Structure formats: structure tokens, C-alpha cells
What does this fold into?
Amino acid sequence: MIKQLFSYLKKYLFLIIFVLFLAIINVVATLLIPVLIGQAIDLIIGESNVIFDKIYPLLGEIALFIFIANLFGYLYEYIMAFICEKVVLNLRKDVFHKILYLPLSYIDSNRHGDIVSIVIADIEQVSNGLLQGFKQLYRGIIMIVATLIFMFVIKWEMALIVVVITPLSLFVAWFISKKSHDYFEKQAKINGELSGYILEMVTNQTNVKSLTYENQAVETFTKINNNLYDVGVNAQFISSLTNPSTRFINGLVYALVGLFGAIFVVKSPSAFSVGKLSSFLTYANQYTKPFNEISGVINEIQGAFASFKRVVRILNVSNEIDEGIKEIELPVDTVEFKNVNFAYSLDKPLITNFNLKIEKGEKVAIVGPTGCGKTTMINLLLRYYDPISGEIYIDNENTKNIKKANLRKAYGLVLQDTWIFKGTIKENIAYAKQNATLEEVETASKLAHAHSFISRLPQGYDTLISENSGLSQGEKQLIAIARLMMLEPDMVILDEATSSIDTRTEKKIVNAFNYMMKGRTSFIIAHRLSTIQEADKIIVMNDGHIIEVGNHQELLAKKGFYAKLYYQGIVDN
It folds into this structure.
């Protein structure tokens, strides 16, 4: 994890070295001030022993070093903030990029809210921890080393007292940090769980209210929230012990330095003056200050590392594998399944020994009970998932040998669950063709029978919409269909694409689909008979097997499984 963090920092190696230089100048200038103050003190000790001629230059030097220390300190803070925020910027970009290229199986098997929490909350925690923790740590180490050098130069015997007792402070900080780290890791995990649950409840408010699930939802939320509270209290309490514990030990160091320093002054004032004691006490405080500062931000550091561990975990997931090297030429002629076997879970086979050949231009409907494998076939066609065994061919070319991007460009897909993003209607429809003109967008909308309702909107095609913009599910689906019309793909996949559209509009859209799909291969998953009856070939599936194949009339004549579904009126997806 540390190695991965430094892989982001090495891009700014020059700036880090420059910041090191700034920190050294800042620390040295800061540490020279107590020396000058000590010299000034020695010039005012004793009766009638105030030497103003020597004090005034010292005051000027003190003012100069204060200015230098503050100037370089400001530059240090600014550049460190720049480096940390750049690291977080790149980290967030890499995580978002990773999400886009993750296998669909990972997205399906993890709560979406938890993934969103990693991108937003966890990376924000990393940002806070980096900015606060590393800023203090970087300068603190330099301060500790430089202060030790100054103390050994002034009085090495007293410097040894500080060096001997300091490890005790480090041990206390390490011990408490180790205990608190586990709690911060649990806190990050539960925070992701809570984010996922909130997202589920917010995005499914209609179901929550219709099922009167509000009280149960509050109970579940309260349980997770209380768990987060308990872990958070322990994490904050244990980490908060670091600061007072180290301050106690540092106070002990300061007291011992004062005691032994006073003894040295009394015994040999010429060798160790009051001014030097004053400087040494300042250094003892300066030496322990970095430990206090680091312990003060230990919760941010611990939280940052716990969150960074979650970020690293998603970054280390393998991208979607694409071993294909070939590209298919459009248009294509045939699609064929050969002895395909597939299961999402190896102990629960879904599709077994699946064989099917589809000729160019055929309109294929896939029907069967819920869970029979209809949508899974679409996942296999688009290579969202690959078969456990068997092959799928396009024009006699194994799809595993074809580049996924090239393969997917051959298909146009409309799902039952429509996707609308925040933007204008034109931008939503032209999503598959970014440089499309308004005329092209309108043509596609007219084919999808969406033009009339779009024209009635206040700004027409420039109307801003989103998932919760007030459009009906049917209107959103018409926009998604218009998006497909814009794409003009070689093959079309409709997965319950007209499920939210009224029968009258559906008939018009089916006619538009028929026009668009003329000469194109199409796969239709649907339960509405108006769509199924017009198919050239109806594939009836049950338990992952093709049990019947034929057109509507042929299958009814067989009086088999399809006829049973048809007459019972339960043909569904």
C-alpha cells in the first residue's frame, strides 16, 4: 500500500525535493532564533549589565530570521498542499477510470453505494490525511533532526536526556496508533455499507413507500448507523489518547531539561549560561512539538490509510480481460452459439449445452419464464460475461478473438431499465454519436415517436433532464430508443425495450423498429405478443435450455411449452 502511494508521489519528485529545501531553510531559521534570544538574555543578566549596542543588532537578526522562517514556511505549506491535492486528483481520476474498465461481474457483485463511497468519501479522507499528516510528518522529521544537532552543539549531556526519554513517547504513540488503526479500518468499511444502504433506499423510494417499508428501513439504517457510531467512538477515543499521552512524556522531558539545566548553570555559569539554558529549553519544546503535532492528526492519518486501503483494493482489481486482436467487418451475416455452458455461480448452472445459429436479417425473439437465461444470452453476446465452455461465433469468427470494443459497436442495445443522465435531451439522444446535428437527433426522435412530446417541452431539445427530472418512464424509454435509432447498429438487442410504453405508441415504435431492422439481425426479449408474433424465429427457453424453436404459428401448432405460456398469458422476461 505504501509502495502504491509513493508511485503517485514520485511524479512530483522535483517539487518534493524543493519542498525539502524549503523545510530545511524554515527549520534552520526557526532554530536560530532561540540562539539569538539566548545571546540577548545573556546581555541583560546582572546588575547594570544591559549592553544595548549589542542587543539592537541581535533584535534585527531575530526579525530577519522570523521573516525568513515565515516566508519559507508559507511556500512550504502552499507547495505541500499543491502536491497533496494533485495526488488526490490523480487518485480520483484513476479510480473512476478503473470503475469504467472493471469487469461487469465486479460491479454486479458489489454494492453500488459502496463503490460510490470509495470514489467520494474514502478519497476525501485520503486527501485530509495526506494534507494534514504528511505535511506535519515531513517538516516534523526535519525539525527533530535539526533540533537534536543544535542541542548537541549547545550541551551534549543534556541532549542525551532528551534522546533517552524520547523513545518512550514514540512507543506510546505507536502502541495507541496500532490499536486505533483497526477501528478506523472498520469505520471505513461500515461507512461504505451505510452509503450503499442509503443509495438503495433513495433510488427505490417508490417501492419503499408502496410496501410501507419506512419503519423497517429506519430500523436497518439505525442498526448500521449505531454500529458506525460505536466503532467511530472507539476509533476517535483511542486515537485521541495519543496526544495527551505524548504531551505528558514531552512535559516530563521539558521538566528534566529545566532541572538539570539549572544545576549546570549554578555549577558552571561560564560554560552553560542562563541564555543557553533558555535556548535549550526552547529546543526541548521544539523537539517534542513535532511529536505532538503528528499525534494530533493521528486520527486523520489512520483514517486516511484505512480509506486508502479500500481505494487500493479497487485499483488492484484486474480490468476486464480482452484477449481479442481481430476486428470484424460490418455488416455481419451470422451469429452462432456452439455448445455454450454458463453459470454466474459454478454450483448453479444456468445455460447448458446451448446451440443456436441465427442468419443475417433474422428477427429472433427470446421468451421463457423468469430466470431461464434470456438476458444472460445478451450478456454473452456482448461479452459482458464469457461462457465457461463452448464458443460464440460471428461470421465463423470466435468472439473471443474479436476486440470487445469492435464487437460491441456491431450491436445496439436498449434495456428495460432506461439510463438518462443529467444534460439536454439532445445530448442524451446523441450520446452514441457525439457530433450529431440537431437534424439527425430530430430524425431519430421521430422514428422513435419521441419528437411530439419533446416539442411540447419548454426548451424542446435543449430542455435539461435527469433521472429524476419528472419525465415518465415511458418518455425516458422513448429517448433511449431514439438513442438507438441514432446509432443505426448492424445488430439490435431489445431487452423489454417497450415495457413502459402504451400499446398505441408501442405499435408505432414496433413499425419503426421493423423499418430500422430491415436487413439487420435483431434479438428481442419481450413478453408482449405484438412483438413476439412478428419475429422470424421464436426461441423458447426454460432452465437454460432451448426447448422449442419456430415462428408464432408453428409453436402454437406444436401445443407445447410456448402454447402453454401463450394461452395462460404469462410470457414474461
